[in-house]
Design brief:
single chain; 312 residues; alpha+beta; Phosphorylase Kinase, domain 1; Aminoglycoside 3'-phosphotransferase, Chain: A, domain 2; five-stranded antiparallel beta sheet; two-stranded antiparallel ribbon; 14% strand
Length: 312
């Protein structure tokens, strides 16, 4: 049952037939072959050049089943800030997307702050509309529930195949996360939409403006959840990571004073690391056995960040 749909007989024919029908209806017939770009455990990507420009097809695994509908909602509410959605099939987990070019933010540090501001604009737009997010399948993942979620995944046999933790250290991590989350509850940030995998490969620069792609990990949580994912991209550029943190806290400074969040930054970064540990553990658990190694490194990386944050 964990075998990806795209690894099953008949899937390719169904998917490409759907692509062709959608493009024909839009008046954008293909002018070249459909290319299979990447098929792995969590998604399958294809692309095709059409009379109206390049189009991308994405299929997601069940753990990301909400992505098509979330992407459609964001396209409708935040046009220009996210990848244009041409069509979806929510039951199949399919998206058809307009091309946004190959110019990624990783190559444009001068746009880092603008990308953060763009994400915060989207987050603010949903502060009072989290019911819409729940309605399209986004989970609410409050920090207050994180310690129990962490304890659950760190006891899972599948996860334990990919991490090395003693029982006593696991207990220390869970207890620390619970206490830190309680401290962080005093900060007045609202839970809202989080991207969940906000890094400079998931932001494209189009005509000088940031466009956010790939909402697979979208959820409802603390808005600063998206600060930590930059660290592993730029391990040798701490000033760039610091700039992203500064842009986030400044963009929310009218809600929470910078001095207040800075005082609790160690607790916040540790809890955020726990959040992403739980995310990656969930992915690893849902993947077919041979595919788990594809995301075990993410699990190990965020667990290492958490471990470093918690005193021994």
């Amino acid at each position: 049952p964990l075998r990806p749909r795209w690894a099953r007989s008949g899937w390719y024919e169904r998917a490409t037939t759907w692509m062709g029908a959608q493009l024909a209806e839009m008046g954008r017939p293909p002018i070249g072959p459909i290319e299979q770009v990447r098929h792995w455990g969590i998604s399958a990507l294809m692309r095709v050049d059409t009379a109206g420009g390049r189009v991308w097809f994405k299929a997601v695994f069940p753990g990301f089943a909400h992505e098509p509908v979330v992407s459609q909602l964001l396209h409708d509410r935040c046009r220009g800030a996210v990848t244009p959605v041409l069509a979806i099939d929510a039951e199949e987990g399919w998206l058809l997307l307009d091309d946004v070019g190959a110019d990624i933010l990783a190559d444009h540090p001068e746009h880092d702050a603008a990308a953060v501001r763009r994400l915060v604009e989207i987050q603010r737009a949903f502060v009072d509309r989290t019911d819409e997010l729940v309605g399209v399948g986004c989970r609410h993942r409050p920090f207050g529930a994180l310690a129990q979620e962490l304890a659950t995944v760190l006891a899972d046999p599948t996860v334990l195949e990919h991490v090395e933790l003693t029982a006593s250290r696991t207990t220390e991590l869970v207890v620390w996360v619970d206490a830190a989350a309680t401290e962080l509850a005093d900060l007045p940030y609202p839970d809202t939409l989080v991207h969940g995998d906000f890094h400079p490969g998931n932001v494209h620069v189009v005509d000088g403006e940031p466009v956010l792609i790939d909402w697979s990990d979208a959820a409802i949580s603390h808005p600063l959840v998206d600060t930590l994912t930059w660290k592993d991209w730029f391990p040798d550029e701490p000033e760039r990571t610091a700039g992203v943190w500064d842009a986030f806290v400044e963009a929310w400074a009218d809600v929470c004073p910078v001095a207040d969040v800075t005082r609790l930054r160690p607790q916040l970064e540790g809890v955020i690391a726990a959040y992403h540990t739980v995310s990656y553990a969930g992915i690893v658990i849902e993947l077919e056995g041979p595919r788990r190694v594809e995301h075990a490194d993410g699990l190990q990386s965020f667990l290492a960040h958490l471990d470093a944050a918690v005193p021994r």
